[in-house]
User: What shape does this take?
Amino acid sequence: MSKHFLGDTAVLLGRSLTHVTRSVDTIITTAITPIAMMLLFVYVLGGAINTGTDSYVNYLLPGILLITIASGIAYTAFRLFLDMKSGIFERFQSMPIARSSVLWAHVLTSLVANLISLVVVVVVALIMGFRSGAGVLAWLAVAGILILFTLALTWLAVIPGLTAKSVDGASGFSYPLIFLPFISSAFVPTDTMPGPVRAFAEYQPVTAIVNAIRDLFTQQPVGTDIWIALAWCLGILVVTYVSAMAIYRRKVG
Assistant: This one.
């Protein structure tokens, strides 16, 4: 790895962030879908859903935050795909820069853009009545989980960004990720689901992550959920990072 990796990444990150600031609508679009879902479930469907809590928006928000991230990483794959097709990667390879800095710039751009979208969603949730007595450490723990989840899904997005044959193929992979929270504890308790669906919901990664965030917000003991959530995030991150870097080296080698 080049000794100038950090400097190269910073320069390329500035380039990517410039593109994002010139198309703020991407961040707005990323936030609109989860906000619309939150409005729909709280004000239309919430009265018919029994979660055993006084405030459905409090119950719902952790899952909405994960949907926000799943929506946002589609743009990473999209931007990476456009860079691959434009030939800019070949131009970068002719310059004395660290190869991996090109991908890291896209990943960090995704992290920044998604954090902005998450803040927007939380602000709307506060307007809708979300309240939490969580302390600073609990909020930092929530932020840490969301950052890990964002990095894991972003490196996953890098793979179709590098390998897709079309724009739709690059960004379309995110749709199953957006709907995965619906088969989890994000919207309703898993014990209300029929047997096979309940089994899937209880052992897929979103449920552990949602439960850990919800417990942190409500100042409940997190138990094993937080460790399971961290294990899922780190496991997905390691596998997708290694896979993405291997694909990238083959593409530019």
